[in-house]
């Protein structure tokens, strides 16, 4: 059974159709990456899964239980198994609580009174390679990388089965970024964690994700194993995204495929294929609406796929 | 007559704090030539922001310039009058900031803001508006005349950053300082901004001092690179030399750490263990030695000088010194 099963999830804020039907599954222990430009709906997807954003239609099942639109009474016990890492590492830590209170807050919220909170705080800090005396510090005394690791410690406090991570490496220096990814990889192996990770840094995806989905205007346009997507992207948008990744080599002359303009407004979704106005490979047939088609585990929404 | 536009000459800058003097910049030396794109690479706390604010002389009140000069067209900016600095800022030297969402005034239209920054010009208002529209067109904003009437919130992040670039280039400056201008943007927009900067640089012939921690962007855009670590220049040179033949362990490790460099999926990514030293309480010797895997006895006692290894390539490391002397 899949750990997480998202089917045709839809979210609108008034007339703004943010998610226009997103479906994907995550197996136990698997890392799934969602990539796409700003405004493609990545953050809304994971917030909707965690019950932090509304979803008017579709279904989210976690371990077989339907949780879309579930009341707080149902969600709260589930949050023990499903933890969130927020995008802004410092902003997601209350400035008035010590690190000890911050990372042990999940135990208090879940009513685990029998836990020795000091010992737990020590254990969690050690797990994310932070000195244990950090327990007495406040968030303003931490660097961005350290605040990130506190976020990881807090997400892991209750030994969840699934972590929803929103841009876990954004704003980190390169030398620290590797450290965080190694930590996540290591914890995943030791604890059998599954992860949904959102990022627009494709170099990161290559190293952590088993499978990935590419989002455009609130829909998946391509999905497959990370290896296949990097080796053989079929959707022109995926190809554009991959080619837009600047290489740390002055002699790398990339075959860069220029993406025209910026994503259209969600209030004025284009007809036919929604990517066609920006697509360098658009054909006449693209005025028709492409359907989601799956072939051997590789999903694609394109009428003129690249070979 | 040299082609040097900006010379940072043995610059040392401290911040006076309650814990003592924080040595934010120590003995920084490098040049920017006319029309050249120079990249500054470094991680958090390396002194990039102090350097920029020193060049513009927009430093915090507790800043002390201990030593050195910042010469712009031969004149020392640290000795210039405030009036002269005001004439330079926005006219000869302009800047694009990191966060495009906070650069513009939210309650004024883009057109009004672009008029305001032309306050020195004697042109008529319609001419100034036409100039503003032309600049918006140059950075690829469609339908610029109509867009001038809009407010910042009506533009996307990528567009706002392009507007910031258009505004910085309006006075045709000799030097454009770009402080991590693509960090807040998606990869696709990042590429658009880089390509636009390259085009504009060819069109306006301004020099660009491009600050970033994104090695891919630096490799693509810059001709020369200055690598900074904990307030000092550890290496500088031509971009190919720096990326293909790094002579400082920090530069080498930094390039190795970039996940964009590693093509095959890796279980364990390389990192640089340890932390940047406390700048208020600097250890003796080489500042990188605690994190360096090739540190020697000498590194703990003597500060390595920034040696010229070959024409235009400098590095501050005793490892090279051994090579030079033997």
Overall mean pLDDT of chain A stands at 90
Please identify the structural class of chain B as seen in this structure: alpha/beta
Helix content of chain A: 25-40%
How far is the N terminus from the C terminus of chain B?
37 Å
CATH class value of the domain at 4-81 and 160-234 in chain A: Alpha Beta
Which word captures the global form of chain A? Answer: globular
pLDDT under 50 segments of chain B (min length 5)?
Answer: none
Tell me, what's the shape of chain B?
globular
Number of domains of chain B: 1
Largest sheet report of chain A: 8 strands, mixed
CATH topology name of chain B: Rossmann fold
Q: What this model shows, in words?
A:
The complex is a heterodimer of chains A (307) and B (326). Chain A is α/β, with parallel strands linked by helices and 307 residues long. Chain A has helices spanning 42-49, 72-78, 99-109, 117-127, 144-156, 174-191, 202-208, 226-231, 236-243; strands at 4-13, 16-26, 31-35, 57-62, 65-66, 82-85, 162-166, 194-198, 211-216, 219-225, 293-295, 298-300. In chain A, the strands form 2 sheets. An 8-stranded mixed β-sheet of chain A has the order 6-7-8-3-9-10-12-11, sandwiched between helices. Chain A has a 4-stranded antiparallel β-sheet with strand order 2-1-4-5, covered by helices on one side. Chain A is globular, with a radius of gyration of 20 Å. The mean pLDDT of chain A is 90. Chain B has 326 residues and is of the alpha/beta class. In chain B, the strands form 2 sheets. Chain B has an 8-stranded mixed β-sheet, with helices on both faces. Chain B has a 4-stranded antiparallel β-sheet with strand order 2-1-4-5, covered by helices on one side. The longest helix of chain B has 18 residues, at 187-204. The model of chain B has no long low-confidence stretch (mean pLDDT 90).
